[in-house]
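Section handout 9: paired folding examples.
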Amino acid sequence: MKKILFMLILCSIFISPSLIFGSHVPIPPDGVLEMENYIRVFLKYGSYTPTLSLEGRWEDENFQFRYRAITLGGYYRATKHLKVGAFYRLQQGARHDDNWINLDPGWAWWDTRGRTEHVLLLDATPRFLLDFLPGQSWVFTLKNRYLFNTYNSQHTLTVRPGITYFLLGNREPRFNFSFNYDFYIPLNYGDTFLYAHWPYLNVLYHVSGIVKLDFSAAYKTVTWSTSEDAILAGESEYTVRANSLVFGLGMILQFEL
């Protein structure tokens, strides 16, 4: 009996504190599969291309339809090799570090599906034909975006290098095959240089001159940093990486005006 009591005391000393210590740290789910669906409309008018994008995402272990957004704006071809753009995004269901909240007792992610956020975006995308590669149908792009979220005053820079091969048939595009890598850089929040990053493969099928079908697969890594509630509660700081496999399926409509 004394031996059992002694073992219980040891467990309470060495095991319980670790559980209490870890209780305020979000636990990333294993093997999460996410799905993104979208419709993007491009209206080309000379050097200007107004755009409209509708997006929705199923995510988390229970595969909830959580994030959705509408983005309005447009691109302007400044030079042969450079497009610039400005956009406005209305979104719901976005998750930020500070959405990990203290329920007292317990911790959980705040359900943000009913919260509306406004995001302003600026875009600069240089692109170059890599005519030294076989087939002379390879294009390198470097998409750079600045985002300002008015909800929490977060400033973000995203950088996405990528290479695309254009497969032609009867001198018309049939497929685009792309490999890209997205880097999501927080400028005034988080405890790491990269908030998120993900390589992804993309296949674009030209159904017609107007209709395109878009398929993608990405391996996404997001790093959560200490939330405001954890700091206020006097808990220890943390950084947690969450990985997920994200599939995308969308439709792109392109019109010449």
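Moving on to protein 2 of 2.
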Amino acid sequence: MVPLKAAIVFVPIAVAGAWAVVDATREIDGLKEELAQQEETGRSEGASFVETLQGSHAERQFKAFDRRREIAVQLTRQRRNLFVGLFAVAFAGLGLATATVLRRIAAELEEDQRYIQGSNPPR
């Protein structure tokens, strides 16, 4: 059985970590789709510039590059959030496991203490 105090401390950490993982995963999927669209836009504007040599196509291509850079920064942030969420879930699991093990050790020590005191009556 998991100690109540440990559960009160670690369960919210695990829930927050799981929420961070789910949210970051959803955001990463959306950003990957947007990045693919921006890559296609950049390629098409680059091809248009090469064909027509008009500056407006080059300008749109640069805007697409800037947007791709912004998306890459956002992807990095979301991947960091994903890692932090996974770390929080792992930390909570290890904390709960540690509390359970320490509780068992304490129960064993208490039982041994009672046994020792019971076999050596005070004089």
